[in-house]
Amino acid sequence: MSKSVSLITENYNKYNPDSIDEFINIGGFTGLKNALNMSSDDVISIAKASKVMGRGGAAYPLGKKWEQAKSVPGDNKVVICNADEGEPCTFKDRSMLEKDPFRLIEGMAIAGYTVGAQNGYLYIREEYRHLHPQMKNAIKQAKEKGYLGKNILGTDFSYNIHVYSGAGAYVCGEGSALIESIEGKSGRPRIKPPFIKQCGLNLLPTCVNNVETLAIGTALLTHGAEKYLSYGTSDCPGTKIISIAGNVNKPGVYEIPFGLTLREIIYDIAGGVPGNKAITLFQLGGASGKIGPPSLLDTPYSYDDLHKVGLVIGSGAILVVDENMKPLEFLHSIQEFFCHESCGKCTPCREGNKQIAHILDRLLAKTQKDTDVDTLIRLAKLMSQSSFCGLGETAQSALLNAIRYFPEEFGLK
Amino acid sequence: MGSVTETKFEVLNDELASKIDKILSENAYDSTKLVGILLDVQDVVPKKYVPMDVAAYVAAKLNIPLTGVYDVITFYASLSEKPRADHVINLCKSIVCKTNNYMDLQKSLEKFLGIKVGEATEDGKFALEYSACFGACDVAPAIKIDQDVYGKLTDEKLIEIINSYR
Ligand SMILES: Cc1cc2nc3c(=O)[nH]c(=O)nc-3n(C[C@H](O)[C@H](O)[C@H](O)COP(=O)(O)O)c2cc1C
Ligand code: SF4
Ligand code: FES
What we know:
The complex is a heterodimer. Chain A is of the alpha/beta class.
């Protein structure tokens, strides 16, 4: 029996994503209707009861985020759907944009109603530009049918959705950088405070949610929190959309209940490693995520279980690296990514990434100086403690875990 | 490369200006849409870039400073201030494509096009560039030609696809 499930992805391949009628025929917009029949506090209660954590990477509780966004004073508020999906090995949001665009629109409307926003902004990465027309078409149809626009379904709630494009900058996934980009500027993060929940896009209170998080919102309001809670484990209920790739036989997007082990995910769902090769390491959550050795493959995929062994769920990416690649080569590639994507605003990240890249070059060429490994560790810690934004703070997650789990690669054992 | 002559100021002509006007009006002359506007503009400029006179034209029409336009062009990887080619081939070299040996795909591309990454073919048809992950890791190693994504290619298939852009 298949170990994957279908709740958030229940509509995948069930309707033509160009047709709102087909979406409505399979029960589309029930969640929005249900939401509009409740108070926003009731919607927040459902989000809280479900214990959903944000799926963009930071795992901030959804109910809490919506509650805070609602309680910020102001008649004019903004919801942003973060479809920047820039983490390497992460492509689960793409599947939602491709296969169930209306669920996302519904989720954005539910979020807008809940927090008291008049406008929603969908920020899609440039790399998914081929999906922009489909999203714009879905918004247009939703407006024509009265699910967006003025007085939605005859209520007092009015809400519009605007589509904005990125242009190839990973840092724009960070909330304040994303906002700068929507304001027509380069995407460099802003200083906090003020926090974007109080003062974000165009200085308005702004609630930023990931694509998958909003899609879960639709499921919660359609089927109730109980249905969502019936999946997964008691400590970590619900489902997660993962994107698994690298050296696996069946890379792709799958929805799984929390609590499967990594081994089950890699071997039973993704078909194992081609040629049955041994696994060198795996990385969870994209380039900024943590890596683990094969000895941790029996860890259940849940927030707490992974946390205990120094791993994270992050975006839901699972990258499998087989014996053809050594940990140092892996780190070198990740480091190249961060050197390229650092926005250069703050010194720890701009310079730290460069220096770490130099040291990794030397380690790979076996020309390192005696002090290099110490410097490497010092810089990695310094970056995680003193960078200006999450990019620099998390860029060395893989390296720090490599030092913990593969000390011999650094001559530390 | 003759960049001095290629970045000369006379790229903008009436035909291009009217195409840009159309893009601007579709975006309601809204300067917050600058990032998306410049992507669309870049697509209608021959050799897929934003020349200086075009940047100045957009700045004037949107009533924003030219430095604001350059702030955006120079920041985002998908925008170029240098001429590229009719079609830009992006080769992903991020980690998933690396675990799937993008290096072999690179060799095939370089051999077939007769250029190295970072160069353009002499006829100006194709530019070959490295790219960071564009979310096609399920079909790694992947390339993106303009907006179209292809992955898991055999050499025959690769040649067939590239020829379809000629
Ligand atoms: C450098 C960086 C890149 C990020 N990229 C993304 C992204 O592509 N998509 C996303 O949803 N969140 C991304 N995030 C996290 C967002 O800042 C934010 O936490 C998230 O969108 C909130 O939504 P959620 O609460 O629904 O998870 C990124 C954060 C950082 C620091
Ligand atoms: S941590 Fe990196 S990406 Fe973030 S502001 Fe500093 S330089 Fe820019
Ligand atoms: S790593 Fe190449 S497309 Fe994602």
